[in-house]
Design brief:
- It holds the Pfam family DDE_Tnp_ISL3.
- This is ISL3 family transposase.
- InterPro entries: Transpos_ISL3, Transposase_DDE.
- The protein is an alpha/beta fold.
- Among the domains are: 110 residues, no CATH class; 131 residues.
- 43% of the residues lie in helices and 21% in strands.
- It has 17 helices and twelve strands.
- Strands 1, 2, 3, 4 and 5 form a five-stranded mixed beta sheet that branches. Strands 8-7-6-9-10 form a five-stranded mixed beta sheet, with helices on both faces. Strands 11-12 form a two-stranded antiparallel sheet.
- The structure holds zinc ion (ZN).
- Zinc ion binds next to loops.
Length: 426
């Protein structure tokens, strides 16, 4: 095999009109970095027409007119930054008196980075690596890489001719650029596939987004799972006339847990005797009652005698009547949710809790406000469970991006890495 061919294979250059000389590879210092430079000549077939005026070449109207050297960045070879110094053919058009240069499919017009390099970087953008890392390992500025990502973002468009039957809405803490800090994400509740990510969750904005789907398409949506953000209810009612709202069970449990926890910290502050105990063993209070161990006696630092987990909880609840009542309310609500006991849940939230702390009252009021959709959650299988994985991915991407500023790039990155949105054409 000739050197010519070896070089071609190593560099993965398919354009047969690029020719390498025998001594084509040199080591040179470029921008302070020892690099590999490959010298080559581009001598394609004589052009059929002038690229400036479009005139067909006849009777030698287009003639050769010297050469022009361009430097093209290739993917790294053996970890060396690699350049192709390509001598291109220049032509002169007698019809329009302009000159033009031969084009290769190695690079896009007016671009000095080869398509191979672009594709290599693109594959890396799809992995959980920071742009900074990718920039360093490919010797391409992060500004360039970010501009590619921005460009890709505009190619991710959710087709408006269909929607899955079951949707899942959620929001997440977004990038710095976003006002209000929360961005909106919605997925297919059956597959977990991301359907789109939108800058913010303002209801007017979301309405106009969903209204751009034809009514026939919106009518096909049967359920929407979501948290208890009030705005979403109005959104679903006006955009999806046939959809049932499902409050995600996880959010119901989370809300009652949080309000119980705030009661605990309040008691903790007021009751010095129990301060450290309530602070140290809060996890036992949050455990499901049935999961507490009542057999094994262990040493707990804040208690002088050996005790079981169950005994520790009993002791903690002795700190305050109020705390004890809130504890049982939390346990019962969680039980009714986990066992899907509709009547039990309805009964629990219909009771009067005026004697309990404000935070518990507010939570119970919220449950009453969202009663229908919470009861739907106990009837239907759907939840935001699949979205949780996506939210973890979002956290990872934010971390590797060192706090993305631009929402556009952030969105593109999430969609690329999650690999769930199909209509991307490059
Ligand atoms: Zn011309």
């Amino acid at each position: 095999m000739s050197n010519q061919n070896n070089t071609r294979i190593l560099l993965n250059i398919k354009d047969k009109s690029i020719h390498f000389s025998d001594e084509s590879v040199q080591q040179e210092v470029i921008k302070g970095v020892l690099s590999h430079v490959v010298y080559a000549t581009h001598s394609p077939d004589h052009p059929d027409y002038c690229t400036k005026c479009g005139c067909i070449n006849q009777d030698n109207s287009i003639i050769k007119n010297g050469t022009k050297s361009v430097t093209i960045k290739l993917p790294k070879c053996s970890n060396f930054t690699t350049y192709l110094k390509l001598k291109k053919q220049r032509y002169y058009c007698k019809m329009c008196s302009h000159t033009f240069i031969s084009q290769t499919n190695l690079v896009d017009k007016n671009c000095s980075i080869s398509k191979n390099t672009y594709h290599k970087v693109l594959l890396e953008i799809k992995t959980k690596r920071s742009v900074w890392d990718i920039s360093k390992s490919n010797n391409i500025s992060h500004t360039t890489i970010n501009s590619w990502i921005t460009n890709i973002n505009s190619k991710f468009i959710q087709p408006h001719n269909s929607l899955p039957k079951n949707l899942s809405f959620d929001e997440f803490k977004s990038v710095k650029e976003v006002k209000g800090k929360m961005s909106f994400i919605f997925t297919d509740a059956d597959t977990g596939k991301i359907l789109d990510i939108l800058t913010h969750r303002h209801i007017g904005f979301l309405k106009s987004y969903f209204f751009s789907f034809p009514l026939e398409v919106r009518k096909q949506v049967e359920t929407v799972s979501m948290d208890m953000f009030k705005g979403y209810i109005d959104l679903v009612k006006s955009c999806f006339p046939n959809a049932k709202i499902i409050t995600d069970r996880f959010h119901v449990v989370q809300l009652i847990n949080r309000s119980f926890n705030s009661v605990r910290t309040q008691v903790m502050k007021e009751n010095k005797q129990y301060y450290s105990k309530l602070k140290k063993y809060w996890k036992l209070l949050m455990m499901t009652q049935d999961d507490l161990d009542d057999k094994e006696y262990k040493h707990f630092k804040c208690f002088p005698h050996l005790m079981t987990e169950q005994q520790v909880v009993d002791e903690l609840l002795r700190s305050s009547k109020e705390l004890e009542e809130c504890y049982w309310l939390m346990q019962r609500i969680r039980l009714s949710i986990n066992n899907r006991q509709i009547d039990y849940f309805e009964d629990l939230i219909s009771k009067n809790y005026k004697h309990l702390p404000k935070t518990i009252q507010t939570t119970i009021n919220t449950f009453n406000y969202h009663k229908t959709s919470i009861l739907n959650a106990l009837t239907y299988e759907y939840s935001n469970g699949k979205l949780e994985g996506t939210n973890n991915l979002i956290k990872v991407i934010k971390r590797i991006a060192f706090g993305y500023r631009s929402f556009t790039n952030f969105r593109a990155r999430v969609l690329l890495i999650s690999n769930t949105m199909l209509p991307l054409q490059l």
